Amino acid sequence: MIGDLILIFIFAIIWWKILKLKKENFREFIFELSIYISVFVITIILYKFSSFLLSFVFDFGLFPSIVGVFALNFMIIYLSIRFFIYYLSKKNKLTLEKREKIIRSEIKLIEFILHSFEDFQKAFVIFFTINLIIIFTLLNSVVDVFTHQKILNYENSQKIDIRAEKLISNTKGSAQGRDNLSETIHFLRIVDPRAYEKIVENTNSFVFSSRSMMPVLAMAHMPDDYIEIDPIFAKPFNSLEDKIYFASLLVHESEHLKNFRHDGGLIGNALNYALLAVKCNPLTNYQYFSDIRRSMFMFGDEWCAQVSEVKFYRQFNINYKEDWIKHFEDN
């Protein structure tokens, strides 16, 4: 979190300077922008290599923010280049004449690529928007840290606990499946009371399917608001990881039930899904998508379910990207 705050602060200073120069000194603006764009391109080209080197210094854990790592790489390269330019100026190796010559070359290059000032303005706005998305993504992770801390002080009502016991006792399917569900629900009550409350409040019943649901492992059914569960989760649990994996499915599917509106009407439902798409889109929530290729084929409600699932996983030392269903198949 502190690292993200530092990166946001540095980004803000850089862009404040660039935008100020755009109004006051266009030639210096071109010089500063060219440095920024050059570093941006270099960071993309060297992203994997630099991330590998950074992994020896920083502990990114199993759930790194891809945008956060990119921003850190960018800042290291950018500040290094700025220091190098300052060093050359102090040693009189980058005189005003040489600086002006560089600026003229940069303007000629821009005129060659973009044939009019209007095209340059459009390109600048697009590039600035991309950087805003990066900054807002970092801000998202900072806000999430503060929000996540509330879990430790979150208390559930007795009414929720009574409803949870009723849901467990009325679960349809095998006795072993009901025991697994009971263990997982009580586990959630301790480690993530907000997720526990979301599942209990928005689910009317649980059903362990009598047939394989592969490749879907669980499914939220609406408007009856019940979660159907693959029979693979009716096998005996052998570890804490079993509960965590199973809990992640309940967190995911209950998010669907929470977001669904029975009586919203055509316009109400359309507005609801539009709001979900804005809130949970993969651009400003990039670090919460286990597979960005998958996210592009989803929509607002499924995006929110993906985000809630990965946020849940981030509490544990578990790699959410692995094919963990094999773990159950092998047991």
Proportion of helical residues: 55-70%
- Give the C-alpha Rg: 25 Å
Determine the number of helices (DSSP H or I, runs of at least 4 residues): 14
The tally of beta strands, per DSSP, is 3
Poorly predicted residue ranges: 60-64
Strand and helix order: HHHHHHHHHEEEHHHHH
Main features:
single chain, 331 residues, mainly alpha, three-stranded mixed sheet, 14 helices, 3 strands
Question: How would you sum up this structure, described in words?
Answer:
It is built from 14 helices and three strands. It has 331 residues and is mainly alpha-helical.
Summarize the structure.
The chain is mainly α and 331 residues long.
List the helices and strands and how they pair.
Layout: H1 2-24, H2 26-45, H3 47-54, H4 66-90, H5 96-113, H6 117-148, H7 158-169, H8 175-191, H9 193-202, E1 205-208, E2 218-221, E3 226-229, H10 240-259, H11 265-280, H12 292-295, H13 300-313, H14 325-330
Parallel strand pairs: 1-3
Antiparallel strand pairs: 2-3
Helix pairs in contact: 1-2, 1-4, 1-6, 2-4, 2-5, 7-8, 8-9, 8-10, 9-10, 10-13, 11-13
